[in-house]
Amino acid sequence: MATAAAAAAAAAVSSPAAPRAGAAAAATARRGFVTFGGGAARSSPTLRSGRGFSGVRTYVAAVEQAVAKDATKLEAPVVIVTGASRGIGKAIALALGKAGCKVLVNYARSSKEAEDVSKEIEAGGGEAITFGGDVSKEADVESMMKAALDKWGTIDILVNNAGITRDTLLMRMKKSQWQDVIDLNLTGVFLCTQAATKVMMKKKKGRIINIASVVGLTGNVGQANYSAAKAGVIGFTKTVAREYASRNINVNAIAPGFIASDMTAELGEELEKKILSTIPLGRYGQPEEVAGLVEFLALNPAASYITGQVHWHYDCISLRFFCSEFYLITFQLTLVTRRCLPLTEGW
């Protein structure tokens, strides 16, 4: 094997095609965070024109194609998406799987839905595994990271999406309602980030995207716990970005507004009209639109200079709407939440 590799290398050096292949490989590396398939499938101009190759050149071309294919498989990024069984998390996992990533689909309770997400990724030619665990528990987080490392040997991208709501006015809020939200929505982000960056630091490469919320900026009646947690995620993102910038680890947050979900589907016509009237585009955002922004921040080379930023993903929703008109809507949302989604995972 070593003799064959040496012969191939020597032949490649002596071949006029080698400089062109090297330049093409370098260009591919410069274009993106990860190289994906395509280069290996291209035939050279000589092959297309039908001109004959010597035996050495033919062999070198075959080796180059095999190496390119192997490199593509090895370089497919490994992604962990928390709260990925439905909603925004599901859309993110599917988008990254379609882009060629190897995806760990985390879930808390929705095992069947998580398996469906994994199967959909695999049906599209990607790789995926599922992991059931509570990201607010350190032992579960460590086990999740180990599962990714055991399967693929590394972690390139972390998407902290898992979250819950326990909405009620502060005067009625129980300590358990406060603590549950803080533990999962904020402490979970801390635990996952701390664990993943141990791997990323060794490689001096990685990207982390935290899913925050617009209410982390505006506040919201009936969501003191949720707003505090998401505001914490925003501050956490900015701080961690500063701490890990020297290790080439980019950390950003996305703060969605109203995104279509199981919960918004249950609001009722009158309440929906009230919400949509405040949005210039006149519609909810879609999970796939948030996933598109995550994909850009996670994989696009144009995002390599973006870190410590909060990307507000909403259509000019006014502060007045959140600060005054949201009072009634909050309690109707709370009733819907209690009726149809006891645990709004990843919302």
Automatic annotation (TrEMBL):
**Which residues catalyse the reaction?**
Y226 (proton acceptor)
The pathway entry for this protein reads as: Lipid metabolism; fatty acid biosynthesis
PROSITE patterns under this entry? Answer: ADH_SHORT
Query: Which CDD domains does the record associate with it?
Result: BKR_SDR_c (cd05333)
Location comes to: Plastid, Chloroplast; Plastid
User: In the Enzyme Commission scheme, what number(s) does this protein have?
Assistant: 1.1.1.100
Name the InterPro entries on file: 3oxo_ACP_reduc, KR_dom, NAD(P)-bd_dom_sf, Sc_DH/Rdtase_CS, SDR, SDR_fam
Main localisation: plastid
Give GO BP annotations, semicolon-separated. Answer: fatty acid biosynthetic process
User: Does the record's keyword annotation contain rRNA-binding?
Assistant: no
Q: Where is the Ketoreductase domain?
A: 77-257
Which Pfam family, any one of them, does this sequence belong to? adh_short
Keyword Plastid in record: yes
- Output the Gene Ontology terms for molecular function: 3-oxoacyl-[acyl-carrier-protein] reductase (NADPH) activity; NAD binding
Q: Keywords on this record?
A: Chloroplast, Fatty acid biosynthesis, Fatty acid metabolism, Lipid biosynthesis, Lipid metabolism, NADP, Oxidoreductase, Plastid
The residues listed in the UniProt record as binding NADP(+), with positions renumbered to this chain, are G83, A84, S85, R86, N161, Y226, S227, A228, A229, K230, I259
Q: Which reaction does it catalyse?
A: a (3R)-hydroxyacyl-[ACP] + NADP(+) = a 3-oxoacyl-[ACP] + NADPH + H(+)
Q: Which residues form the signal peptide?
A: none
**What do we know about how this protein assembles, alone or with others?**
Homotetramer.
Q: Name the family.
A: Belongs to the short-chain dehydrogenases/reductases (SDR) family.
Protein name per Swiss-Prot or TrEMBL: 3-oxoacyl-[acyl-carrier-protein] reductase
Source organism (scientific name)? Urochloa decumbens
- Lineage of the organism: Eukaryota, Viridiplantae, Streptophyta, Embryophyta, Tracheophyta
